[in-house]
Amino acid sequence: MTIDRENLLKSILNSLDRIDHIELADIPNIDLYMDQVTTFMDTRLRSTTRNPGGDKILTKTMINNYAKNDLLPPPVRKKYCKEHILLLIFIYYYKGILSISDIQTLLKPLTEKYFHPGGSLTLGDVYEEVFSLEKDEIADLQENIVKKFTLSQETFQDAPEDEKEILQLFSFISMLSYDVYVKKLLIEKMIDSFKTATQKEERPKGGKEK
Questions:
Q1: Which residues in the chain land under pLDDT 50?
Q2: Long-range CB contacts (< 8 A, 24+ apart) of 120-128?
């Protein structure tokens, strides 16, 4: 097995450059039926899938399950508004690493405060603020990936030549996986703190904890 290391790293970094979120201005301001929602999401997020030719972004069943699990307010007359789309985008990015319960913990306070426009902040404002950090985050990720790739190429120096490449690739994958594992643990701990903070905020002044 021969691995073109330079092309492998270049391909990984290029794939990060292609990651992009849906701009707020590109989300329709009119209410959409279910088929229109799934088509919009599929069109705009197709490039983020592992197998763009076959993977589904969202299905009717998924959306119905999100509503049943209180991740998404029910549609009005079978139509979904812009705020529904924003929540679905958040769910799409979270569902690969977080449980339904954790996603509910994160989104419930946002839905209750910002789903219905009228306050000083809207769900669109929250969305734009969060995703404005994306470009800097991708630059940091690229730098970190190059560092891990370089370190992985220094492993298994005493291994037979015909085994070294696959072992070094395994090292690289393992380093990336450990990074994801640790960050997932940290995210879960922060979600627990987030839950405690939002529950305190919901409690009326002078009220006792149930």
A1: 207, 209-210
A2: 123/83, 123/86, 123/87, 124/24, 124/82, 124/83, 124/86, 127/24, 127/86, 127/89, 127/90, 128/24
